[in-house]
Amino acid sequence: MRIGIVLPDITEGYLKVARQIGCTDIVTTLKGEAGKLPVWGYRELITQRSRIENAGLKWTVVESQQPPDVIKLGLPGRDEAIDLWCQSLRNIGAAGIPIMCYNWMPVLSWLRTSFTTRVRGDALATSYDHSLMKNAPLTWAGTVSEERLWESLEYFLKAAVPVAEEAGVQLAIHPDDPPLSPIAGISRILTNPDAFQRVIDLLPSPNNGITFCQGCFAEMGADLEAEIARFAGQKKLFFAHFRNLRGTAEHFTEMFHDDGDTDMYRAMQAYYRAGFEGPIRPDHVPALEGEPNDRPGYSLWGRFFAVGYMRGLMEAVEKGGFQSGR
User: Fold this and answer.
1) Is the pTM of this model over 0.85?
2) What is the pLDDT of residue 64?
3) Does residue 326 form part of some domain?
């Protein structure tokens, strides 16, 4: 198991700090104007990969190169959009980056109702209160059914998974966050553990798997240890987000990693027990005093704290035993 991190930018300073705190993997997108193009260029990818590797780290996961809404909603033009997305996928594989984390949340994507909820020491955290969204107006997409999203996802997988196989890239789908359906008229389909099994079974392939976002599975009320064992046992858990929170999908607050409802030690044991050896990164964290809250959930000091906590848990599990789950 390898600790990855999302950095504010791919600079020498940030890369050095990532190594200094014990990270080995970088989870990122293609930076700059090139990352905004419909097709990511091969030369830009290898240039960024070289910058990361020259600093002694590995770029193992692409995040934020999402299939656009025209694909997720099954709108006219989706075939052309899929072709463009798959061209990027080919280039990512050719550049030697092994994992693509993506989601199936059209229009609203990652959703919170507060970015300034106070947690320990008045650190600023993100939270979600579904009661505040119950009267939300429809978006430009109108009403979107679950059936429509399942159809568009299957259509996408049939096109993208063969490309992923050829390119040598693992497609790791991320849960809906929050895992509630519908919100503002838009359904969500990745809201329970069985939905991920359905994705895997839609197109069986060694390259079709999941991002185990621990926070989202906790929001679902899932048995984290059982679900880690379930998907890692099938070799479908390609990438993990390590996160803690208090509450349920309808009303939760994202906490410091050592201060939430989840028993993080037992969760870490579960990854070891299941034989998970892929990248795992700290997910959303509070913003600490003295740093800007301009990227809610991704404050730098909070992530540094989380990495140290994760390393401590990993050492405790390795020395204390994980085969028995004690």
Assistant:
1) yes
2) 82
3) no
Amino acid 245 reads L
Structural domain containing residue 7: 2-320
- The structural domain count of the chain equals 1
Instruction: Provide the pLDDT for residue 305.
Output: 97
- DSSP type of residue 48: H
Q: In this structure, is the dihedral angle defined by the CA atoms of residues 2, 7, 10 and 15, taken in order, positive or negative?
A: negative
Is 325 within a domain? Answer: no
Burial class (CB in 10 A: 0-12, 13-18, 19+), 75: middle
Q: Indicate which CATH number applies to the domain containing 75.
A: 3.20.20.150
- Mean pLDDT (the chain) is 96
The residue among 185, 174, 100 whose CA lies nearest residue 148 is 185
pLDDT digits (tens, 9 = 90+) for 228-277: 999 999 999 999 999 999 999 999 999 999 999 999 999 999 999 999 99
Residue 122 is assigned to a structural domain of this protein: yes
Instruction: State the angle between helix axes of 193-202 and 224-233 in degrees (0 to 180), rounded to the nearest 10.
Output: 10
The two beta strands, 245-248 and 251-254, are: antiparallel
pLDDT in tens, 3-59: 999 999 999 999 999 999 999 999 999 988 888 889 999 999 999 999 999 999 999
Alpha carbon distances (Å) from 181 to 186, 189, 207: 7, 7, 27
Helices 146-167 and 78-94 pack at an angle, to 10 degrees, of 30
Q: Is residue 315 part of a domain?
A: yes
Q: Are 59 and 97 in contact (CB under 8 A)?
A: yes
| pLDDT for 325 beyond 80 | no
CA distance 295 to 260: 21
Element (H, E) at 159: helix 146-167
- Whether the CB-CB separation of 249 and 207 falls below 8 Å is answered with no
Cα gap 109→87, rounded to integer Å: 23
236's enclosing H/E stretch is none
Residue whose tokens read 């097709």:
39
